[in-house]
Amino acid sequence: SPVAYISPSETVLNAKPNPFVAQFSSIGPNSLTPDILKPDITAPGVNILAAWSEAAPLLPRIDSKQTFVPFNLISGTSMACPHVSGVVALLKAAYPDWSPAAIKSAIMTTAFRLDNSKEAMKRSSREIAGPFDYGAGHIDPNMASNPGLVYNASMQDYLSFFCSLGYNSTQIKLLTGNGFSCPNHKEEVYNFNYPSITVSELKGPLFVKRTVTYVSEGPAVFEANVKSPRGVLVAAKPSKLTFSNKGEKRVFYLVMKPQESVGNEYVFGSLTWKNGEQKVTSPTVVKRATPRSPELTKHSHFNHPEYKSF
Q: What is the pLDDT of residues 108-165, one digit of tens each?
C-alpha cells in the first residue's frame, strides 16, 4: 500500500529571485485619478510570520475544531501595510517636523526595483514587473532615512488638488469646515507635487511642474538623470539644482515631447536627481491621448518659454 512521508520543515534563506510581485497584488493604472500613479510602493506581504491573537481561531477549521495559536502566517495588504506603517513611524521619530507628504516622498523616491539577483523585479509569473505592479518600487527603510530631497505638499495643496478633480468649494467646505475656496485657475492634476509623475493623456509637448525641498545639511548640487519612456522625449529643466541650506526649495519642469511613433499605450521611464551620495527617483508614466491632429499645434505648452531650448 502507498506510504507517505512528511519531512521536517526547513527555513530557506536568501532564496532567489526575491522580492517579486505576488499574483494577488493590486495593480494599476489608477481608474479614478489616472494622472496619479498607483500603487505607490511595494512591501513584504507574503507568508509573514507574526503574533496572532488567541482570541481569534484559525480559519479554516481543522477537523471541524477551532484552533487557537499565538503566531500565524498571513499574506496580503494587511501584512504589507504594517511594514510601511512601521517605517513611517521611524521616519516621524527621526524627523518630527516632516509632513506626511514628505515622509511618503522619502519612502517612494528611495525604493529599489532590482531583486536579489540584481535583475529587474518580476511578477510571480516571472514576467518583468513595472510601475503598475510595484509603484515606485520596494520599500527600503535605510535609504528612506536619508533622501536628500522630498516632494512636499501642504493641506492647501491637497485642497487645490480636490479642485483639480472637479470638486467645488461648497463640497470641499463640507470636509474642511473652513472657508476654503477653489482658485480661479485650476491646476492640472499631473502638476500636483507627487513623488511620481504620470500623464495619462499626452496631447503634445507638455511641461510638468514639480517642487523639491532640500532636507539634508550643508550645500549640495543635484543633477538630473532622465530615462525617457519609449516614444517620448523627456528632459528636466533645469537639469541641475543647487542648494546652500536645509529647507530650500527649487522648482523644475519635466518637459515631455511625444514622437511620431508613439501609440496610445502606457510607457514608462524615470527621473533621478543625484548628488553622488543620494538618489531621488520618480517613475514617469505616460500615455498618448490620440494620434496627432492639426489642432494639437495649438497646444498651449508650445508657447512655454523653455520649449525653444528643448
A: 999 999 999 999 999 999 999 999 999 999 999 999 999 999 999 999 999 999 999 9
Instruction: Give burial (CB, 10 Å; 0-12/13-18/19+) of 99.
Output: middle
**What domains can be seen in the chain, in order of their start residue?**
20-52+69-153+193-309 (2.60.40.2310), 154-192 (no CATH)
The amino acid that residue 205 corresponds to is P
- Whole-number Å distance between alpha carbons of 149 and 4: 58
pTM of the predicted model, to two decimals?
0.88
HEC states along 84-124? HHHHHHHHHHHCCCCCHHHHHHHHHHCCECECCCCCECEEC
Residue 140 burial by CB count (10 A; 0-12/13-18/19+): exposed, middle or buried?
A: middle
CA distance 139 to 118: 16
Q: How far is 219 from 73, CA to CA, in rounded Å?
A: 47
Peptide bond into 96 cis (omega under 30): no
DSSP 62: B
Cell of 292: 496627432
Torsions phi, psi for 41 (to 5 deg) = -155, 160
Separation of alpha carbons 102 and 288, rounded Å:
30
